[in-house]
Structure formats: C-alpha cells, structure tokens
Amino acid sequence: MIKLAGIDVGNDSVKVALDGSNEPIIVPNVVAPGYDRHILQEEDSPLKALDVVIQSPKLSKRNQRYFVGLLAVENQDNTELEETDNKALSDQSLVVALTALAYAGVKAESASSSTFSGSDEVEYIIGTGLPVRTYAKFNRTFEERLVGEHEVTFLSTPQLRNRRVKVIIRRAIVSIEGAAALYHISTYDSLQIRDEEVYYGCIGVCEIGALTTDFPVVKRMSIDNQFSTGEQMGIATYLDPIMRDIEDLYGYRFPSRAKLVQRIRQRQFTIQRIGEGQADIKPIVDQYFSRAAVRIVEMIKKRWNKYPDIQCFYVIGGGAAALKPYLLEAAGSIRLRFVEDSELQNMYGYLKLAKSKSSQPSAI
Ligand SMILES: Nc1ncnc2c1ncn2[C@@H]1O[C@H](COP(=O)(O)OP(=O)(O)OP(=O)(O)O)[C@@H](O)[C@H]1O
Ligand SMILES: [Mg+2]
User: Fold this and answer.
1) Which residues line ligand 1 (CB under 6 A)?
2) Per-residue pLDDT at 112
3) Is 361 exposed, middle or buried (0-12, 13-18, 19+ CB in 10 A)?
C-alpha cells in the first residue's frame, strides 16, 4: 500500500508525518561517518541510534555508513549544514530524509505489534518543499532526487538491527516553505476550509528556519511571485556566533548547534566549566536573539510597507518559537501572529498538499 507523507527537509531537522499517524518523527539534520561502535547499553529508542548504510542512485557515494540524527549530534566528526549548502542538492539532507522515511515506514507498519516486524518495503507519495529563493530553479531537481528506489539498512539501531528497508518514492510534490504552512493553518485534516480569512486573504508569512528565512506572500492560497522573497539567514546564523562567544569567554565548546539548541529549549543556561565552577550563558543568548529579532521585524515592516494589502503576518518555523519573546518586544505596536508547534507547520502543510494533489493526475 502506498503511504502518504509530508516531509520537511530542514537544515536543522528533518520532520516527517505520515497520513493517519499524529506523531511526527523528527531527526536532527546531522550526520557523522559510521563505524562499529561499542555498545555498553542499548539505547531505548531507534531514533537515538540511527546507524545506517544507504544505497541510492541519487547519492554521490554508494554504500556509505552513517550515524544519523541524535547519534551524530555528540560525535566529534559530525557535520551540520552551512549557509552555502543547497537543500535540493545536498547529499546529507537526502541521507537524513531517506533514513527518516525508512524508519517512519517500518514504525507505521508495526504500530499494531510491539516489534518492528513489518514489511521491508515502503512505498510513498510525499509532499515536501524548498525555500522561496531555491524553489524556481531547483524544484524539478529536488523532485528527481527524491523519486525512485533507495535502500536503507539499519545496523546497530536498537529494534531494527540489520533490517534492510527499501524506500520507494513514487511521487514527490514540491511546494514552498512557509506557504505550505499557511495551507495547513487554514484547513482541516479533511482539507475543508477552516479559516476563510486566511484561506481567501492576502497573508504575509515570515518563516524562520535554521539557515533561511522565507517571506512568501500568499493571496487566496496562491504564491505572489512579485512580493515573495527569502533571506539567507536563520537561527543558525546567530547560534554559531553564540557558540563562538561562549568558547572565547568560558572555554566551553558545544559539539554542535543542535546541542546548544537543546539547552536553549530546556532553558538550561548554566554551563559547567572545567574546574572553574559554572557560567551563565543567557546574557549571550539574549544579546544575539534580540539582535536577530530586531532584524527580522525590520524585514517584516519593510515588506508590509511595500505591500500594504497584506492583512496579517504569521511568524512561524522553529525560529518563531525561539525568538517569540524577543520578536514581541521588537515589534512594538505591530501585531504579529504566532501558532503552536510552529516548526511543524510546513510538514503538516506538505502532507495536506500531497493528499490534495495525489488525488489529481500526476501532470503537475
Ligand atoms: N523552541 C525552540 N527554542 C529554541 N530554538 C528552537 C526552538 N525550536 C526550534 N529551534 C531552532 O530554530 C531553528 C529553526 O528550526 P526549524 O525546525 O524551523 O529549522 P529547519 O526547518 O530545520 O531549517 P530550514 O528552514 O533553514 O531548513 C533551528 O536552529 C532550531 O534548532
Ligand atoms: Mg524550515
């Protein structure tokens, strides 16, 4: 049976939702070269130890072993994406995306039993997206890279040891980051309209990701070609200097951005220094995040000025969650709209678009 999935291939994390399952799968977009690791105690969830070999005609290296997601976050030799990486072309993103889809597939099949004994082949129609500025030039390429047959073999992953999963992507429906989120916000799961103001209105979106911030303007659910733009900046643009300052000031090194974000999310701002007691990193975070918020609010105002027809502005993406208090302060009297689970909105939108388009013929 073909499964429908929404997959947001984020620079920070890859997020997958399958139709009919309300639990999204989130895998940090971090990989490290894989090797035979010493396991003292097996992890309690497959997501904590994704150790895979991937075979795909779309990857430049065949049959490579990778640690993916959480297992790579603490690894010395890990890589996270940089500003210069292009999502549509990045091998790393494809590795994480395929791993997430393979895992989501076997997990869904085994939902009824306690072991992962489902079939070793999962077939998908997926909805996904690209940033505003990458979309026009790369949406075809991205689609072609995703569509086809790939194979993910789990090695030391708990509950999935030595499982080989064929991931077949029949179709990939590529839309635009931020705009898809608005589709989700304004419709029910049945795809019927939930919010007429948003669905039929002229709405500004500011979607703050890790490396890109997208500003689509959506009018009656169609993207405005002239006014939609994107910026090569995101939360990671500020996380990197935060980590640098912490290292310079306190000699404390975060192994990855993901590790710093974990702390910010949990509001654990105290770091342990070697032999020197503790230090509070909140002032550094505040300083950079306020700066980011001021810059983003300036960009929103500029766009609103250029296009006064915009009725309201939604601020979404993981960056909206991270910056909310700072944005509210910077916005002053300008009203901005925030939603819950802001980093998952695109993913849900992609799933709905896949649902809506897969019921139509494939010529889109
Ligand atoms: N609640 C939160 N608190 C702090 N930081 C957060 C929170 N939620 C997400 N982030 C951070 O905000 C950034 C953006 O997250 P998001 O998931 O939207 O990025 P992405 O979609 O993976 O990236 P991109 O859109 O650039 O591809 C990331 O660096 C993420 O770690
Ligand atoms: Mg994103």
Assistant:
1) 8, 10-13, 209-212, 234-236, 261, 264-265, 317-319, 321-322, 343
2) 55
3) exposed
Q: 227-241: b or e for each residue (b if 16 or more CB lie within 10 Å)?
A: bbebbebbbbbbbbe
Give 2-176's CATH code, choosing from 3.40.50.10150, 3.30.420.40, 1.20.1440.230, 3.20.20.140.
3.30.420.40
Residue given tokens 């404390």 in the structure block: 252
* Token reading at 113: 């039993």
- Which ligand lies nearest the alpha carbon of 11? 1
pTM of the full predicted structure? 0.94
Q: Where are the domains of the chain?
A: 2-176, 198-341
Low-confidence ranges of the chain (pLDDT < 50): 363-364
Please give the pLDDT value at position 79.
Answer: 92
DSSP for 239-295, please give it: HHHHHHHHHHHH----S-HHHHHHHHHTT--EEE-TTS-EEE-HHHHHHHHHHHHHH
Residue 211 CA: distances (Å) to CA of 23, 88, 98, 231, 256: 25, 14, 21, 9, 15
Q: How close is the Cα of 289 to the center of ligand 2, in Å?
A: 18
The residue whose two tokens read 């150790």 is 51
Instruction: For residue 214, give Cα distances in angstroms to 179, 229, 238.
Output: 9, 6, 17
Distance between CA 279 and CA 281 in Å, rounded? 6
> Residue 330 and residue 332: Cα distance in Å, rounded?
6
Supply 269's token pair. 């701002």
Q: What pLDDT score does 363 carry?
A: 47
Which is it for strands 213-215 and 202-208: parallel, antiparallel or unpaired?
antiparallel
Q: Residue 13 CA: which ligand 1 atom is closest?
A: 22
pLDDT of residue 364: 42
- CATH code of 198-341, in short, is 3.30.420.40
Q: Are strands 121-130 and 164-176 parallel, antiparallel or unpaired?
A: parallel
d(CA 351, CA 364): 16
